[in-house]
Amino acid sequence: MKKILIVDDVDVLREMTAFMLEGQYETFCAGSAEEATEIYRREKPDMVLSDFRMPGKTGYEFQIELQNEFHKKIPFMFMTADKSDEVESKGFDNGAMDFIRKPFQPDVLLRRVANILRTVDEIQDLTKTSTTDALTGLFNKGTSEEELTKICKKSVGSLMMIDLDSFKLVNDIHGHAMGDKILIAFADILRAAMRSTDLIGRMGGDEFVAFCHGVVDENSIATKTQFINEKITDAAKKLMGEDMNIPLGASIGCVLVPQAGTDFKELYKKADKALYIVKQNGKHGYNIFNEDAPEENVETVVTLAQVEMILSERNKEPGAYVLPFESFRNIYRFLKRTRAGYGKTICIVLLALKRTGDDKSISLKFAGEKFIECLHSTLRRGDIVSQNGTNQFLVLLTNTDGHHDVTRAMSRVVENWGKLPESKNFYFTHEWSVLDA
Length: 437
Known about the structure:
By secondary structure, this protein is an alpha/beta fold.
């Protein structure tokens, strides 16, 4: 229920107004501007319905003081028995949303109040749409830059550039819908890591920014970094499963304000330099900008354990290693370069998924997702799987004896694919060759 603060020095008029609004709104009454200010501080009503002429302060003087204290435009409607157009004009100039002349009828009052509250809601919706990122609910890039420009000029704290490491792999392997879920979870983690007085924004993609008021010590920054990295791993496993093997984490470039300056654009460049150092030294860590330290000589804050966490495969379950095509290509090139050092044969297999008929009740994209799951669960942990386009799939079969092992592996895929309902609509072909040096 919306809250309305009624301010009138005449007891009877104040009580009558409250009676008219009763049932549709929660009302609070005050007989003076001073009393009304105390109520506003405590209750934060949605609008103020105030008499214009009161002892001590006029209604618009009260409005100015209240708005100055709370640094925002407060919805006001004035009640007045004054017939002067000058009074009404002065109130509107000061930001009043409406006037109602005494005596007034209940239906007129209710209609005027409803119109104001509806207008306020519409303005708030438009403001939220124009200032926030639609996916995460954080400030968008434009608003973040605008607010941080003001904050950095007058505040003490830490400006942080925050990158979500390895996020592209989520989109490549699990699709953009899962990518959106990860971004939403990451935004929630950032909110949990910061305080309500701090600013958090999304600059685009997997790039975020934050200003932490009063945070200028390295221990606090290190603690926040560790918290964010731990929580994003936990969230990703809940969303993608315990066998999630994407090294998600956060890299944070930090600059202290005002020690490093007060101009946001320059501070942002310095935070970017600090972030670059983290990226070059293993990710999943933080770096605080140091004007005097050459980039190549800056000590990394990433430990060996963190580097091993980034490099290691987190999937300990059986099944082939599924990679995006670009990563698959890099491994293919490496194996081809070092082929002579292996005692066993390495084979590459190209599989193509095709429709069995004209039935299109199952999309090729959906069938492809099921097929790559089938490859993952059927093949060995030492094998590597990737998708190339919508219906083509690549497999590197390592540690094989050649033709016999390829035939046996493909027979298992045929058997397991045949158990899935999608196989009624799709079959696959394959061709293979030995990986030569």
